Amino acid sequence: MTAAVTTCHGGPECIEVRHDWPIPNVGAGQVLVRVAAAAVNNTDIWSREGAYGTAADPQAVVGWKGVPLAFPRIQGIDIAGEVVRVGGGVDDGWVGRRVIIDPAFRSEGEYPADIVGSEVDGGFSQFHLCAERQLHDVSDSPLSAVQLACLPTAYGTALGMINRAECVAGERVLVTGSSGGVGMAAVQLLVDRGCEVVAHTSASKREVVAGLGVAEVSVRGQDISKVSPVDAVMDVVGGDEFGAMIDRLRDGGRLVTAGAIAGPVVPFDLRRLYLNHRRIIGSTMHTLGDFADLAAIAVAGGVEPVVAETYPLTDIAKAQRRFAAKDFVGKLLLEP
């Protein structure tokens, strides 16, 4: 099969497109999925670069678990496709079904033990091997294959944030980075839930974000204090505005953080947190229940992911360079 194989930590030059890579053998409890589309994500790029660091050495070249990845590795955390083969003990009824794949592999409990495209091979290939329990049937979804491939990481992470913050219909919620993958996903999921959304984004992307059904658009760099108080903040940015976001919360409000693209070390006044009974919640990815809910939303057509551009798998380096340029709105997809 054709596969984009990452050979070491580093830049796009570490990816080799191979046309002779073996199709995985299907074992008991496993399924083989023909990949229809795979999205490009920060997670894939940071894992390739080894950009996660450790507590002892923030510059250490390691994956998210604090150790280097094992190479060679097929990356690609977001996968949509069709089941073509099943192993022993797996219902034959899966064959021919359209699926999305939970990218978090759990040995026990709710927290990820391994991540698709990091500790195990991912979707930057024509076929992907996974466990049956990672499959979610989306055969009846009105979304296209490339739209479905947008869902697992960005929308899974966003739904995990929303559920951990216990957002309910009618609440006013501020979303930072709302033109990016997770931010835009949070906007769409909150609108689908019936929340009043304030989208915080750059001036150049204001019009696109305004078309997502939001109640208000706040422009990054302008005075955030002009935004009326909110019940919750979904933050994927961090950086210098973090403290200002806490100040926008009503008494008892919740801020959920799941990213730090503007900087991981943030200033804020602790008094504004405890005197107003506010909460800060850390959130990584999603739970099993979150992902099942996401699949149901996909089948119901509750969200419509924005696809910026698609590329053939052989153009993976070009796609990842475009991703790094951040000159688009929506998601970039690879089609093997």
Description:
There is one protein chain. This protein has 336 residues and is of the alpha/beta class. It has two domains: 3-150 and 305-335, Medium-chain alcohol dehydrogenases, catalytic domain (Quinone Oxidoreductase, Chain A, domain 1); 158-282, Rossmann fold (3-Layer(aba) Sandwich). It contains nine helices and 18 strands. The protein has helices spanning 42-49, 145-149, 151-164, 181-193, 206-210, 242-247, 270-274, 288-300, 316-325, and strands at residues 3-6, 15-18, 30-39, 73-74, 78-86, 98-101, 104-105, 114-115, 127-131, 135-137, 172-175, 196-201, 216-219, 230-235, 249-257, 279-282, 307-312, 331-335. The mean pLDDT is 91.
Keywords:
alpha/beta, 24% helix, 6-stranded parallel beta sheet, 26% strand, 2 domains, 336 residues, 7-stranded mixed beta sheet, 9 helices, single chain, Quinone Oxidoreductase, Chain A, domain 1, Rossmann fold
Poorly predicted regions are: none
Structural class: alpha/beta
Q: Give the class-level CATH name of the largest domain.
A: Alpha Beta
Total tally of structural domains: 2
Order of helices and strands: EEEHEEEEEEEHHEHEHEEHEHEHEHE
Overall helicity: 10-25%
Sum this structure up briefly.
The longest helix is centred in the middle third of the chain and has 14 residues, at 151-164. With 336 residues, the chain is an alpha/beta fold. Strand 7 (104-105) and strand 8 form a beta hairpin.
